Amino acid sequence: MSGITIALSKGRIFEETTPLLAAAGIQCQEDPEVSRKLILGTNRPDVRLIIVRAADVPTYVQYGAADLGITGKDVLHEHGGGGLYQPLDLRIARCRMMVAAPEGFDYAASVRQGARLRVATKYLRTAREHFARKGVHVDLIKLYGSMELAPLVGLADAIVDLVSSGNTLRANRLTAVEEIMSVSSRLVVNPAALKLKREQIRPMIDTFGRAVAAREMALAS
Ligand code: PRT
Ligand code: MG
User: Each residue of 66-79: pLDDT tens digit?
Assistant: First the structure.
């Protein structure tokens, strides 16, 4: 196949990617929130989009089922990033990976006392590495979503999750106690595809780069 396949998730990543694609002259022909199709055509006959779960984007690109993908640093960190070229921080879908706990919970004191913390998260690898660096003993409990609930019903002392506005934490009387990393979405590229389709992919990366820079300039002024 000589065309280019780009893997994306719907929701916030698709929404925030649309202007960047437009800057590269790519317009999706269908709204993934409405259409049930998983392969979407664009105005460019040589470019198609595939809609996958956010956590699956690196896998599609790693195996070459997609040439390019757009995915959060959170997802990339869990995946490990093996077999992926990461040329560009797109600076979209920004948020922070945080440790959060119930408002009354003295996180610092329990860490100091060497207590064994129960932490619920869908980001096992990120959480494991973070607490290992700090030398904090944790029992990690794997969840697939709505981590904010876990401390409220006694499943965990704390959670590791993404925070953007902080509204979800506040609504559930939780508070962020530690930042693990700042998160934004990255462009990831299959290295073999980059070699084979360099004349198509390289200009696309450059155009995305210029669109990101222009957007940052506009936001700063
Ligand atoms: O939702 P679904 O289960 O389908 O998949 P997903 O959660 O993996 O995908 P999606 O589309 O929700 O998120 C895709 C990517 O967006 C993530 O991998 C992040 O890189 C990025 N992103 C940016 C976020 C957020 N901001 C964010 N706030 N992803 C999730 N959230 C969630 C967070 O987990 C928490 O539950 O929003 C809630 C907190 O938001 P605030 O605004 O209340 O703080
Ligand atoms: Mg989500």
Answer: 999 999 999 999 99
